[in-house]
């Protein structure tokens, strides 16, 4: 630390480049500081540093971070604690950590192994114009930073940390229970589903929200290790239809299930909502590109005689994009599709009797989802949870029907089946090609060109955009990618896979397996700053990585021979 002070004194008022002299490792009384990367000028992206603290100094109970899910919860809590200390000590304009939101994701912001905890920070080194402000820098690095670490790590809110870790045990147990019961999801009584607004992920004020209460017929009680007994709605495998009047909370329930693939913090309202982690939200996405996808289970005989078992387009329609999104999710290994009428193509969802009479089957290329949803479950074991307020024809294919009425769920399966029996639908079931869930598509190396000018450039812009060389990948319809740090990690993964593995010998599914295997002990592997500072990544699922690859407009796929 003394050495760092002296260097900063020496380079005070020199040109910005002289900051390079503080690259390296400095020992402080309670941690080591690695200055890994020094920004080239005051306007470049900030410098990168790691604070390394040995467990021998920190004295935290091993139990808190030893196992997989606890490690994620532990590091998540430490990242929150550092973020809070930075704000409270008014250092958040100069020192940054990739701060978690409502979800608890595996992140690279804080890493903890059996020897040490490492906190990854970005730091704006102070300057006036391009002149080093050595005194301020010294204050920042040798006073503020140690004081933040003191508060955030050595004086961490131990009660809060233990609760956070205990919650992760309960969430783990709840997921195990849902799997054991061969179910899709669990929504605990008392959960708060609605959010503050469409763009705000925090819960609606409890005074204004109606909390969830399971219908008796669908209720189950689970015994969690810390919480104890908890009652909620257990959604069984199969075809689950959610009905109800407009504005009665259907989409809100489906959105909560979409997010149930992630764990949520205490107080979020969704801490005890879990969904099968392979669940994929499926929606229409007209305009997207499609590369060599077999959508023939849904769509056949297009008017321009385009092949649909190797469907290719730069500009998909509502129905072809929705069909593509389903087939691609199956290809990546999804076991549960989540569909909302609000974001679906009507002609993909349903075609009623009258329309069948007017437009004869040989003139209609689409086999609507209603005619495939049972096959998907019975032949492929893929379940569906679907919101349809507009048509009762879905009663025929449903295993369960839940009605949302003034934000409360009711089991109306029996009633719906009676109605279906009384008023038989005259619809004719459409027959079409069988599903082939195992895909043989192999991405080719030429798809991935990271060059932009003389350099390679692969990066993320916010949550919805990846820049890959000269290409832009649009993820705005990939709703379960929820954090910009996930998007960054997806960008890194694409580049990583392209460099090492994409050569026309691996199917997309195999590439996703490789991603999971190679990052099984952490996402640092993906970073270009490996061993130094990859502090701004959060783990994406294989489905979101597949979604990004599938939306690359230069994608070229061959079929395995
Ligand atoms: P639907 O899909 O049935 O038309 P939404 O799910 O979009 O209805 O909900 C309509 C509105 O009601 C939204 O503004 C939503 O935030 C709010 N809302 C949903 N569930 C609840 C609830 N449990 N308590 C209070 N407000 C809710
Ligand atoms: Mg809706």
TrEMBL record:
Any Pfam family hit: ABC_N
Entry-linked InterPro entries: ABC_ATPase_C, ABC_ATPase_put, ABC_N, MRB1590-like_C, P-loop_NTPase
Residues in ATPase of the ABC class C-terminal domain copies: 159-436
Listed transmembrane segments: none
Start and end residues of each ATPase of the ABC class N-terminal domain: 1-154
SUPFAM superfamilies cross-referenced by the UniProt entry: P-loop containing nucleoside triphosphate hydrolases
Ranges of residues in domain MRB1590-like C-terminal: 457-558
Superkingdom classification of source: Bacteria
Name of this protein: ATPase
